[in-house]
Write a structure and sequence with these properties.
13 helices, binds flavin-adenine dinucleotide, single chain, alpha/beta, 18 strands, about 25% strand, about 30% helix, D-Amino Acid Oxidase, Chain A, domain 2, FAD/NAD(P)-binding domain
């Protein structure tokens, strides 16, 4: 595929270990110690003599924490993101599996659209685990890097000189502190206050784009007795045409012999909010495996979460930004979570940061090259999950094709493979517009769609 952005995406997604390079930064400070902050800190450790991560929560041992309220909900680590994590933390997958994460090979997972089982697409394996477990594994690996330290504290502002950020202000245990910084990364999530701080300092506030999603999540854990060759992950997605109040349901086997089951709905529709409703729906509205995973009893209660919108901050379009400052992860773009792109985007942003710092950038100027690279990743995820509403014409075409292709993925293995590579963030969405895909799309449209799997019915 020849598009420039597809080639840039491929370069960002490389799994090669870059050669070592003399460190050009003194102290780099990362604000926020969740997935995006941990990944950025790992990359910065190659370029700064010391890296300081300021996180307001105490490090919790694989348990949900206050600063990440969505951490209780089911999280998919897409292959595109996992490859980047393995790149920056070699053998991460191996270690996560040894610590309890579960393998879901292509044979061990299934995907349904409106009750119809899709043909097998990508051969990529995924690992399944809870969000706090994944973050805990990343944190352990990061803290083993000698030039990284953490401060438990709340970042309260930035200090600038005429052209660049120079320090971070924070508050820890009731005491105010200042950390001098030769580079700062905002990883404070979607509610980051960086834009306010920039405006207060006389810089541009990056334009914010929002798209209403109003998605409601309900997630619960169930007891699991592992069985040989069982299905360890299943995705059942429901189109709006299918009717009913469901966006979809997913189950994963996760660490400590548990199943995690999630149900989602849009707007006022909140399926699966009680244990009774979730169990009933798993038995009545979804393929038989969903009934099986809820058979051995719930652990705790159903936990819910609502996300009102997808949002992105257009740093690449801001004309007046200080030098030595970037933002990563949800602080830049947070997507409709049903597509599972957040952690993988954060990992790819870290790879953009590596490319930027390896390009011998002029550190007295804004990090435009970084934001341009990052925009390729953000646009790719956005075009898949947020649809055409805010995208350019070319992206609208890609989004339209995506909708057509979803139907073809049910019956055509080659289309299914490209589509999954794109939704797994392994390949850029422009690959969906390749002539070979379009030809197969036409022939797939003539094929008969199989009947929905029992007991799934039109709701
Ligand atoms: C319901 C739901 C389901 C999701 N499912 C998936 C999925 O399946 N797959 C996937 O990849 N992604 C998923 N995501 C997205 C994913 O959770 C995030 O994209 C990912 O965690 C990266 O987040 P982040 O590190 O940028 O920000 P966050 O995880 O939000 O972390 C921000 C961090 O900054 C800290 N912080 C904030 N302010 C300050 C401050 N002033 N000082 C110091 N620290 C501060 C917070 O305590 C927190 O630790 C989902 C999101 C939601 C809401």
């Amino acid at each position: 595929m020849g598009s420039t952005r597809a080639r840039t995406f491929a370069r960002i997604s490389s799994v090669e270990q870059p050669p070592s390079k003399p460190k050009q930064l003194d102290t780099a400070v990362v604000l926020g110690g969740s997935v995006a902050g941990l990944m950025a800190a790992r990359v910065l450790a190659d370029h700064a003599h010391s890296v300081v991560v300021i996180e307001r929560d105490e490090a919790s041992d694989d348990a949900p924490r206050r600063g990440v309220p969505h951490g209780t909900q089911l999280h998919t680590l897409l292959p595109g993101g996992r490859r980047q994590i393995d790149r920056w933390f070699p053998r991460f997958t191996e270690e996560a599996l040894a610590a309890g994460a579960v393998w879901a090979s292509a044979e061990q997972r299934s995907t349904y659209i409106d009750g119809v089982r899709k043909v097998r697409g990508s051969d990529a394996d995924i690992i399944t685990a809870t969000r706090p477990f994944i973050e805990g594994q990343l944190r352990r690996r990061l803290l083993a890097v000698p030039n990284v330290k953490t401060i438990t504290g709340r970042a309260t502002g930035l200090t600038f000189d005429d052209s660049a950020v120079t320090a971070v202000r924070y508050e820890s245990g009731g005491t105010a502190g200042v950390e001098p910084a030769s580079f700062v990364v905002d990883a404070m999530g979607r509610s980051s206050r960086l834009s306010d701080w920039l405006e207060a300092g006389g810089w541009d506030r990056p334009p914010m784009i929002r798209q209403v999603t109003g998605i409601n999540y309900a997630t619960a854990l169930f007891c699991r007795t592992p069985e040989p060759a069982e299905r360890t992950a299943s995705f059942a997605l429901c189109s709006t045409e299918f009717g009913g109040d469901l966006a979809g349901a997913v189950f994963f086997a996760v660490e400590n012999d548990r199943w995690m089951v999630m149900m989602g709905g849009y707007g006022d529709l909140r399926p699966g909010r009680t244990a009774e409703d979730m169990i009933r729906r798993c038995r009545a509205d979804f393929p038989a495996d969903f009934g099986r995973v809820v058979a051995n009893g719930i652990i705790g209660e159903v936990l819910t979460y609502r996300q009102a919108d997808s949002r992105r901050r257009e740093f690449a379009a801001a004309a007046n930004l200080p030098a030595r400052l970037v933002a990563v992860g949800d602080a830049v773009a947070s997507f409709n979570p049903i597509y599972g792109q957040g952690m993988s985007s954060a990992a790819l942003h870290a790879s953009c940061l590596s490319m930027f710092l390896r390009s011998d950038p002029a550190l007295y100027a804004p990090a435009q090259h970084f934001f341009d690279l990052q925009r390729v990743v953000v646009d790719a995820a956005w075009s898949v999950s947020a649809g055409p509403a805010t995208a350019g014409r070319r992206d609208r075409v890609t989004s339209w094709l995506t909708r057509q292709i979803v139907d073809a993925t049910v019956v055509d293995t080659k289309v299914a493979r490209v589509f999954e590579d794109v939704t797994h963030m392994v390949r850029h969405p422009d690959h969906l517009a390749a002539p070979a895909v379009l030809r197969r799309l036409l022939s797939a449209q003539r094929r008969r769609r199989p009947a929905p799997t029992a007991p799934m019915r039109s709701l």
